[in-house]
Predict the structure.
Amino acid sequence: MVTHAEAVIWADGLTKTFRGRRSTGVEAVSGLSLSVGAGERVAYIGPNGAGKSTSIKMLTGILHPTTGRAEVLGHVPWTQRRALTRRIGTLFGQRSQLWFELTPRQSYRMLAAIYRLDEGAEERRLAELGGLLDASDLFDMPVRSLSLGQRMRCELAACLLHDPQIVFLDEPTIGLDLLAKQRFRQLLVRLNEEKGTTVFLTSHDVADIEHVAQRVIVINHGQVIYDNTVASMRRSLLATKLVEVTFDRPPDNLEMAGVTVVTADATSLRLAVDTTITPVRKVVDVLLERADIGDLSIVDPPLEQVIANIYEQAARP
Amino acid sequence: MRQPWAVAATMAARRVVASPSALAVSSGFYFIVVSVVSALWRAAAGVHHGQVAGYSAAALTWYIAFSEAATVALNVRMIEYIGQDIADGSVAVELLRPTPLVLVRLATESGQAVARVLPLAGIGAVLALVVVGRPPSWTGVLVALPSLALAVCCNLAMQHAVAAAAFWTRDARSTWFLYQKFVFILGGMLLPLEVLPAWLHHIALALPFMAMSYVPARLASGHLALGLIGLQVVWLIVTVAAAAGMFAAGQRRLQVVGG
């Protein structure tokens, strides 16, 4: 657990209530507490309406909380927003920072002036980002001629131009094709590993979480309902394992408590094993004994299913 | 150190140059409007012994060329679009920059508007030269050029001040229509303010709309009153302060109440 002193993002009991003119109010965030250390890659996820957006707005200083405390890089976001904006970067997948009629480099010139970078610093930074994001050749092309994947790399460069210590990314891969998504995820990991930039990512794409994040914070109804490493989340939350086998001779009988057949054909079988009832080792022993096994693998269930389970568990009274 | 406002305005002007087709469309529209409206005023002058409210047919043509340029250069529904940005929360994202939101917006819009208004004034000047010949005063036309730039900036600042009401109302869709009518009539876009009844003329001269169209048009029509430019500068300061104040109050509300 990251302590308050070590944290670059820290919140304690953040609450935000939106009050209508006649209504008593809607509590979008309800006593949210979290802490994120420098250099972490965190996925911040939750179902629609969970309070992600509102809490990020509070952590970046756009919104004042109704109650609670927070610090980002030592700044209280809502009272020191301007100072904070110089040290954080934000990327919203559906909102462009680039002007379509111009080249990215021309848009960067305006952003550099906003962040008070002189021309020398701007050029050095763009050369560095061009290499890091493999985007140097894109900086002088009109934005309107770039593919979405190319544009998102240029958007990321815009977000990183002032060398932020934390980047907040909201659905950064939305709309990208498979290859562009993979490349973008690799770039985020590279940015984190080479520059130590803290990555705080929200996404509904499970692959973003799986391939970028080391840690997952799940919120629902405005509260943190789960906070752990991605690997632990897989291991601890689902006792179910998938056993996949191929064989020359199928097993005679596989009736065991806690074992269900997911798919089966003449040469292969997929079993779901509830390890709280039957250990997976016992199932493997039975398979080896009763069938002529060609190949066998034990896999975790897809992360999607794990996350769905967390949401469902939180929804239960 | 580069000033963000100056860079924003320059880059925005480059956007206009980089989209010649958009400029061509507004130029075509402007050419038609100036041709028709100035023809009407020349006809009106014709039946009034060659003069309307102290303006000759030639002066009226130069007046319309500049009054229309000052308004055609701007997006007619800007108030609505700013209001949408406020209502849907887009504006909140702009708070994630270390510069005052409204000033960067104003610099950007002003850069674009100035880049549009000067070519339009050029087209208007050529049209007026062809139709009625040289202007009543070349000096007046030259002085009207910086006045045009002040006019569009003043108009933009006022539109931002009005649109900022969307921080409270969440809707600025209807406001732009009413605002445009004020610019058309009380701003002197369609008609010189001297044509209005005396009481309305006095009211119009006391309102900021006169700085948005009437002043450059009056100067281009040969009425060299440099005090009018001073008045424009005063209105520019007032409208920018109003926009900044409204946005600052709106931002505070947004931060407390949410977007």
